[in-house]
Design a protein that fits this description.
- There is one protein chain.
- This protein is an alpha+beta fold.
- Strands 2-1-4-5 form a 4-stranded antiparallel β-sheet, with no helix packed on it.
């Protein structure tokens, strides 16, 4: 049997048994406490203390201990901007038609930006950040700046 002991409440929780095929990799297992205030807990599994983390990535989406969804939004915007930087020479060149660059934006870049967005709870600030990131790329494709006021 695997058992986990939570030091805060001194309770023992049984996860499952080895006979049922459940194996716990204590070297890779981490725990995260989700609360508004930072909290430290000592959690041990079969006598070994598990590492407590503040954020982790699961299926490409970043989760943090304060349960603020803007962490995931900011991470996606950073990845979007990184890929825009990689495609910048293609998007900036005038020999490539504007329609091709728009298709690159729709088919490649927006997919990167909106990956995992089904789980987002968007605030008005987060919506504004996403919209600003999209507009930055569209201005790059069109060849105008914010000063042009178009």
């Amino acid at each position: 049997m695997f058992s986990i002991r939570v030091a805060r409440h001194n309770k023992q929780v049984v996860l499952g048994s080895k006979g049922q095929g459940l194996k716990l990799n204590k070297a890779k297992s981490e725990v995260m406490v989700v609360s508004r205030l930072p909290e430290t807990m000592r959690i041990t599994a079969n006598g070994r203390e598990l590492n407590q983390v503040e954020k982790f990535k699961y299926l490409g989406v970043v989760y943090d201990s304060t349960a603020i969804k803007e962490t995931a939004v900011n991470d996606r915007i950073n990845k979007y901007s990184m890929n825009v930087g990689l495609l910048h020479p293609v998007l900036k060149v005038r020999y490539v038609p504007c329609a091709v660059n728009v298709q690159i934006d729709i088919l490649i870049l927006r997919q990167i930006l909106t990956f995992g967005c089904e789980a987002w709870t968007l605030t008005s600030a987060a919506k504004s950040k996403v919209h600003a990131a999209e507009m930055r790329v569209l201005r790059l494709i069109k060849g105008v700046t914010r000063r042009d006021r178009l």
